[in-house]
Protein 1
Amino acid sequence: MGAPARRRWPRLRIRGGAWSVWLVGLFVFLAVFGPTIVPYDPVATNTRVRLEAPSWAHLFGTDDVGRDVFSRVIAATRLDLMIALGAVLLSLGIGTALGAAAGWAGGWTDRIVSRTIDTIMGFPLFVLAVGIAAGMGNSVWSVVIATSVVNLPLYARTTRSEVNRRRTSGYVQAARLSGIGSFTIVARHILPNVTPILAVQASLNIGWAILNAAGLSFLGLGIRPPTPEWGILVSDGAEFLFSGEWWMFVFPGAMLVLAVLAFGGFGDWLRDRLDPKRA
Amino acid sequence: MTRVIGFRLLAAIPNLVGIIVIAFIVTRILPGDAAAYYAGPTATAATIEETRQRLGLDGTVVEQFLAYVGQLVRGDLGDSLSSGQPVIEDFARRLPASLELTLYALIIAIAGGILLGVGAALRPRGVVDRIASVVSAVGQAVPTFFLGLILIFVFYYILNWAPEPLGRLSFMYRPPQPISGFWTIDALLQGRFDLFGELVRQLALPVITLAWFGIGPIARVTRSAMLDALSSDFVRTARAAGLRRRTILWRYGFRNAVIPVLHTTGMVFSFMLGANVLVEDVFGWPGIGAYTVDAVLVADYAPVQAYILVMAALYIVVNLAIDVVTALVDPRVRYDS
Amino acid sequence: MNALTAIIEPPPSPLPDSAPLLAVRGLSIFFGGRIVPTVQDVSFDIARGETLALVGESGSGKSIIAHTIAGILASAATVSATTISFNGIELAGKPAAVEALRGRRIGMVFQNARAALSPTLSVGAQIGDVIARHRRLRRTALRAAIVQALASVKIPDPERRAKAYPHELSGGMCQRVMLALAMAGEPDLLIADEPTTGLDNTTQAAILDLLAAEAGRRRMATLFITHDLGLARDYADRVAVLHAGQLVEEGRAATVFDAPRHPYSAKLVRAVPAKAATVADLGGIPGKFPDLSGPVPACRFADRCDRAVDRCRVEVPRLEPVPPDGMAACWRPLG
Ligand SMILES: Nc1ncnc2c1ncn2[C@@H]1O[C@H](COP(=O)(O)OP(=O)(O)OP(=O)(O)O)[C@@H](O)[C@H]1O
Ligand code: SF4
Ligand SMILES: [Mg+2]
């Protein structure tokens, strides 16, 4: 019954296409060149143009001290992407290492790692992120680390089960008997098998990391104004919502949505390519 | 059944221990000297030393941990610097506000997600299915706080349908006498129906914001579980036996689709506990999330660990409840555990 | 004559003179994306108190015919029929009419009974749902009726078993429960779709004996769908042979088994001499079962038939009376 196509959620046309690759490319371009190509200095104030609605001179309008919102939103791309990417790479690296160690060594190592992972999963993740960011104080790093810790389980679990499954396979036994060291076996013969899955998870994870980091800075944790960052920009703009100056929160928010869509679509696209059976 | 509950309670113990350990670690990584923080801004070197001893901060890590557990057992979560009160008292006062918001959002997310998911399963690619997929897509891409702000802008600033998003109740109204702490319920109990209406208006936007993100996952899982159930042999039997459509849909279809839905509900609740901070922040909601963030911003760290503990404990309780309901619905689970 | 028109518009089949309980005429079932009907121009009757066995290979369309009669066919299918008349009531193209009969006048049991019962309700609750649908009973009366229903299908200790869930019962017990469920509405027609497939021989015989006894006692008509020619011979009054959606032969069980007229039935009977052997294992018939997703010859058996002539491929053979009784759809019948 029911052809497999009916099982699927009807797709929004926009997800997972080549468009997302272009969009990710655009974001990377903005992250690299954004601060140099923006029309205004993102932190320079100009009280003569306070709270101006969007116009050709100021595409996204100006804020309460006359800064160009467009310039600030574009300039923030670098920081937001670096935080998200940094957090994902950090949890990918540590999570994979922990998972590999647990899956390979078994015994107490496995028990301790698995317990830790379960404990992290026992928290509502954003709550834990808030706790860690609060504990670590005001720096970009506190956002990066808070975001990466709550993501550790994702990578650790995948790696652990894959390593565990392949530990007893024929080619690993053979490698062992020929005197190759554990580290080499894991790094050269087992992990490459997991790489595609991890790559897909990591790219799908970037969008989530962007949201998580923006949420923390929206609350005022970690990064402090006037550094342009999307979460902070939305938070600053929110105060002016009540007087109708919507452009201050709408544009950075829309940029967040666009970034999340782009990286989510990119992750889907990558999955379709690397892991056809799950596509 | 009691065996199931007992078993799950036992299984939750290591979880609880882990949570206490993490909360402990978070308090230990606080910037600067914890004793100095707890002693307060006017502390002298002597009072800091005294606080250090009182909190057991001068011992080894193990001693400190034991002292910390001792504190927890006594219900001592430390004092808030900003309010000058024990954190536990501040929390007790604010927790009902957070719970009222979160539980209403959870109910709406479950009801909305199930209705959309069942509707979508009845007519794949139909109107309901498309609505569900749009709601879900928005929930995946739009940050919680941004959605909240957009709703405020549209429904308060432009349309003026919603009241000012400043907390549980406009200052023009007198809140109900606290009975349950859930003001909507207290207002009803006291027969103040106009107040109830006002409370609901005030709750509407934050609840919708929070619920939105749960509707998508619940609808998606409901849809696929219902498609499976409706094409199953036992639904075919029920149809052949001439049962009513409603009976077939809910008692034979949905009852057998409910378990994955319940598990998703657990995840959704976890997400809501996190997103709750953001929503409280956006809507000026006087709950423990907003309180904790305000405290952190003025370098008052005692509430943070209390916040983590309370949230994690709530999560455990809800998961326990889900396990129990699962066992009630599905007899096979009772034997597996 | 063009081959395709011949396939799509076969000449009408003759109507019988008696008035059976169920009369099916010219039933065709189409699935989207297929160029030939999956079931083509099938006609048969069942009288009160009679058991008709519908036999055929896997995929020949037995279940979808049964589902059509009960009105529970997957919505992906399109049905056309001259007549599906039940006790004089026309059901073809009238979902509301079938709805009113289903579960009351027409009961149905399926294979793999454990999967065909809801895993999250006790078997008593499931039987209770059916009884409550047909009779207004108070709580205690309903409970008594449930126990009574379970007892009537010879389930030992019915009070206790009513509280059991399907996964706690054996396959045979589940099949008895399903029988009780189908009987709860006291149907005039029972459609049993491979009711004993997957059960061991002893259990199989017990279930079928029970079914036969119930049918005999209440003069209930039975459409007995099976792979198993031995069971068809033992339990059916008449046998209808289905091949790739075409009804090729129909007649008294003894005639069809001892002197088949259609080349397919003949091969079937010869290929499975042992009593317990089933149609599923058709090593004895050469050639492949026709692929119904593509074009097929007018007589769908033509590719496997050693009596085939040119006419067989372009003109659909009609089901016509053959001596001494029954009917066959073949241009060159045996005998
Ligand atoms: N939903 C559907 N879509 C397309 N084709 C279908 C569908 N359901 C059934 N069919 C086709 O109808 C044909 C008959 O199926 P049916 O289940 O009636 O066979 P059967 O004779 O009962 O076989 P079995 O002995 O295996 O139960 C098969 O060829 C099958 O492919
Ligand atoms: S009609 Fe022709 S092909 Fe078909 S069974 Fe008869 S002889 Fe064979
Ligand atoms: Mg079948």
Protein 2
Amino acid sequence: MDEDWGSPEFVKAQFRQWYARNSDTIPAPIDIAHREFAFLTFHGRTMYRHNRFPTLDKLRRYLRSNAPAHSYHSSGYYDDPAADMARKGWRGADLVFDIDADHFDLPCQMEHDRWWCRNCDNQGTGHHPEICECGKAQFETETWLCARCLQAAKHEAQKLLDILIQDFGVGTDELTTNFSGNRGYHVHVHSDGMIPLDQQARREIVDYIMAIGLEAEYQGFSQRNRGVRPTLAEGGWRGRTGRALYDYIQEVEPEEVKSMKLSRRATKSIIEDKEKVLNTLMKRHPSNVTSLIDPKSLQTVLEKAVKLQASEIDTVVTTDIHRLIRLPKTLHSKTGWQVQTIPYGSLPDYDPLTRATVITGDPVLLEFRWAPKIKINDVEYGPYEEEEAELPVGAALFFLCKKGARLKR
Amino acid sequence: MSEREAAKYPFLKAGLELLDGLDLQLDDLTDPNYGKALDRAAERVKEAIVQGVVSAKLADPLTELLSYPLAVMYVTLIGEQFLSRRFALAEAVRAYNLLQDEYEEKITRIAVDEFGWDIRRDPENIDGVPHTLKLAYPDYLRAASSFHEAKWKLVNRKMENGLVCLTGVEAARLLQVGVEQWVRERVSTPSSFTLPEPLQKRLDDVKKVFEENRVRLSGSQLPDEVINEAFPPCMRYCLEGLLAGKRASHMERFGLTSFLVNVGMPIDDMVQLYTSVTDFDESLTRYQIEHIAGLKGHRTKYTPPTCSTLRTHGICRNMDSICETVSHPLGYYRKKVRRLERQREQQEAEPSNTTAQQ
Ligand code: SF4
Ligand SMILES: [Zn+2]
Ligand SMILES: [Zn+2]
């Protein structure tokens, strides 16, 4: 008899073995006794919620005996983490950020992501459209990943860290950065200033980090303003806006400028008098730019430019004060990889494709239905389509967890 | 602190201590000597109701100081949330008007001593305007969260190392919010006890003014019927997505559901809407809608998220000219309904014209 795609029994056994040996390396989240824990098993879709572990030892014992497919802890701190939601007694919550390459628009997604309409026979690669040609919006999707999307996610994470540290003054010891185990990164901030903030304040922080609602006038770009110095070296969004505009104008193609439908004067300034605009930005207060690019056009250009400096975070995760977030150092059963904590300063050199495969073992024979190519531990695999191949367990687990293959016996 | 200072900001610790020292009982207040304070107390509440701001009468500081706790007492005895909010705001505006003329040192001292803010003097010139103060972002966010102008958005402020630059006037404006929250906490629990005659007389007087103004102040009502054409673009977007069977995000579903509840769509219609287009389970859907409508659980009826919340989550789409003037989808709806009504009235006034066009 054929195995199910993904061979869940095999994956589960591998997880079990790993937890048996490695549970003692799982660290406790800060203030473990006031956190809620939640788990998903390999079978069924119900989440086991409202668990509480007064000590790290109890948590480790649980992981060892259950070897969960997914493990989470709450961003929130509660009087009674085991009570139901209404009776938990919220005390505060870490500010958490989720950066997931799935939310970006990247060329590589055309190579490794696919979708099908459940209603008609329409299908395609990359992201599915909002609404299918048939008028419905019910899709099946298959999303993979590659070095390029992981790199894009890392870039967003780095920008986020810079904003948190420079602008919000978060100490490097008040945050942790984790590889999510799949397509992105999680940043947890547990500084005293952040923990008590309500949803509305968190929303304002999200807007800050994504530059939502940023207006040119308040970054210095207004005829009314009377400043003397350029702002490029300033901290916060004022400096970042100036630098973003500088970089953008320096690199933008004339075609793109024309497509933005700016005023004729602004279009001319950016395309033909580029040097003059750049020089003004570099040497003079930004109010002087408004005589080259009118305020309305400037706002349009800025909205594009600041996106280069803003960070693409998931807005819902960060504004949720009861969020469940992956428990660092546990395993992720959609990849077989480990959720890893990255020490501050090491992010630029961190590569999940060589670090996150923590389960190792003898090669196994797989039968593939479809899988794009990916480089794991410096070995290139795939693309595979209806074929068999023998892979080391670490790599094999990835294709099994993504349900692109099954064990061949 | 001098009596005059206490009279300016009667809600501060010093003012309250001064009052405690007098150790007054309700019955003492029937003494005609306190007549002025009783009158002024009633006047404070009436000013709040009618003008939305309490005046500052500092010529007789003791009366001004004494009248504040009495005004608070009147408000709690009337026990209407709407009045409590209005009174708190009016007292806060009074304080703001006074604070604006103070030296920054005084402003920071009140902020630090009374509200525990992390604020300091550290002058910086921004675009030619001196910003003399810096406030820690958690305090800033708590106070500025109710402001909608672009200049108060954190992303439009200069912030470094967790400190937000402010001018003295801006700090006073933020303190106003602190005062408002402070007063509101003290007037939001209704009380009931019997007052001696001279006090009761004045309370009746205040009540009368409140009743007279109530309708004028509580805003216009929404129509009973649901007017689809008046939906704002964001809600149309959510609705169209739903009708196409799109898997809506939590925020989209919550936004749409709470919007529909608030414009008065009957729950049965909503359940039908949701279950007809998707594979939602009927009883679960009903439960969730009833929860949002305040029929289940905590029994609070949820209002839809504000425009700025919807914007954060990418649901604010296809803004039109009405959108520029509102901060809430329900505000949009209200405006559009009125506009549609006016159009209809006009058309009815010129019937020949419309038939000719058809
Ligand atoms: S401005 Fe407000 S009402 Fe208009 S579309 Fe955006 S969220 Fe909706
Ligand atoms: Zn289709
Ligand atoms: Zn990719």
